[in-house]
Structures are given as structure tokens and as C-alpha cells.
Amino acid sequence: MDQHRLTEYLKQRMPHAREHRVVGLKRLSGGSSRETYAFDLEWNEGGQTRTRAMIGRRDPTGGLLKTEREREFKVIAAMHRAGLKVPEPLFLELDASVMDRPFFIMDRAQGRTGMGAFPAAEPESTRAKVADDFLSELARLQSLDYRECGLEILGPPKNPEEPARVQAAHWTEVYERDRMGEHYPILSAALAWLKANPVVTDRVVIVHGDYRSGNYLYDDNGIIAMLDWELAHLGDPMEDLGWASMMFWGRDQLAGGLMEREAFYRTYEQKTGHRVDRKRLFFYQVLGNAKMAVICLSGIRAFIEGQTSDSVMPFLELLLPQLFEDLANQLRLV
User: Fold this and answer.
1) Mean pLDDT calculated for residue range 129-151
2) CATH classification of 20-107, choosing from 3.10.580.10, 3.30.200.20, 3.40.47.10, 3.40.1550.10?
3) pTM (2 decimals)?
4) Which regions of the chain does DSSP assign to beta strands (E)?
5) CA within 13 Å, CB half, 28
6) Which residue, 95, 186, 213, 300, has fewest beta-carbon neighbours within 10 Å?
7) Rounded to whole angstroms, how far apart are CA atoms 149 and 170?
């Protein structure tokens, strides 16, 4: 993002203010389908100088995923209205000429984060608070009525089997599109198993799509904000639970590095009032490993084809052995 163009854009979006100044603009690492920039905006309003910490999320030239920014912005806005812990969305710009590619701007929450499992070095008291908040927010998300949230745009499933079929078909399609001639027998077998064994959901909820450790900001008092809503859709509540409790995102026997898995599931049941369906949970954990492997392959291809210069992308290949091992262990059970 260009500082001058960003400043001029914010002047137009905030005509009541004057003396706008973008300070400390920098690109942040991470993010699977957006370039993420942090900055402070200073302006004068009513004779007073004000400052607000902001985040800009812009479509990349290439990356791990192709997702639709207007959809993500609307989901974040709906979650903010519903009282979930999300940053406040501020401005959406779909005109690519403004900043080369579409983008949106939201409030910047303060806090710590990690790359995957909750950091082992954190105090036990902090881990317990974050774990409780993590499952409380998931329960709140799954209790929302997507119609009341105005999220019919996410496409309600036509029948209880459709969520599983749609997700299996989608990630199979991405795999066939983005692999570069390679053949991965374990991944192909997993995708074939998912296609042949769709599970039936008992209810339709708003699915975050990437609900896991590493996708929230926290402090010593718990979670401040849940991040990265670009994969949100309507589907089976076991999808987010299965993804969050995958071995890949955990540490030892701690789901997400937060809580022992069986305790994690019991706490989920207590907070939601719904039992954990182990058959559906298993399906979505297989899907999760396959999905993550496909995401890695998409990122590798984007880097090789010059769609992105993100230096993290080539190293995604190092994640594949663990994902394939987890898939192999899972497929031995079926």
C-alpha cells in the first residue's frame, strides 16, 4: 500500500475530519489470502487531534487462497454487530484503481499472537483464560442465526449432507487446479474417502473456516479478537471444531496448545449444549489435514509462477510430511 494514496483515500472517506496523516505504515507477515498492513491514522476533528490504530487488508497478486473481499468484510461486520470479539470493520473499497487492488480497512486490535499452537512459554493462567475464551467464542458463533445476521449471502445448504459434499468437492477442485503435475497418493486417497463418505449435519451454523490457535489476538486476560474470516461459510458445526483440534495445530495432546483434547470436547459440549458427534468430527479432521495440504500446494505454485514474492511460500513444502503422516494414520482407521 502506498502511504500517499492511502492518506488521500481516507480524506475522502472521512470528510468531517482534516489534517489526515498516515503514520508507521508497514506490511505484516502472515495471512493466507490478503496482504495485511498496519498503520496509525492521525487527524484533527473539532479542534482536537485524534489517533486510531488501523489495519488494511488488500488482495494480493498471488497467495495461498483466492477469496472474495466483500464477503469477508460483510462477515466481519455481521460478527461485530453480533458482539463477537472481532475488530470493527471501517471501509471497503472494491475499485481496484484506488490502491491497485481491492482492499478494506478495519480497526487494529492490540495483543499477542502465535504462528500455530498456543505458545508453551505462556503462563498456565493465561492459557486457561485463552482456552475458555476460545471455546466461548466458538459457542457464541455457532449460536447465531445467519438469517438474523444478514448472511444469506453465504449460501444456505440445500440439505444436511451438502456441507460435507461441498467442502470435499471444493478442496478436491483446488488440488487438481493448483498441483503442478505432482501426484500425492495419500492426499488423493483422503480426498476420495471424503467424497465417498459425506456426513450429515444436525444443524447449519456460521463456520469461520480457519478457527484455530494462531488466528486470534490475546493478552493475559484472554482473547481480544478473532481474526481471518475470509473462509467463512455456512455448514456443519463440527467443521470448525475438527479444524481447531487437529493434531497439526496442537502441541502434544493439547488441542490448539490450549487444552487436553477430551477436556476440549467436553467443554465445547458444556458451552454449546450440543454433543460432539465423533463420526462427523473425524470426517472434518480428515478434511482439515487434506485442506491444509492443498493450501500449501496453492502457495507453492503461486510463488513458483511469480504471483507472490512472499518468502514463506517455498517453505510450505516442509509442512507436507506431517500432514501426510496424519492423513495416513487417519485413513488406517477407516
Assistant:
1) 98
2) 3.30.200.20
3) 0.94
4) 18-28, 35-45, 48-58, 89-93, 103-107, 205-207, 216-219, 222-226, 233-235, 254-255, 259-260
5) 18
6) 95
7) 25
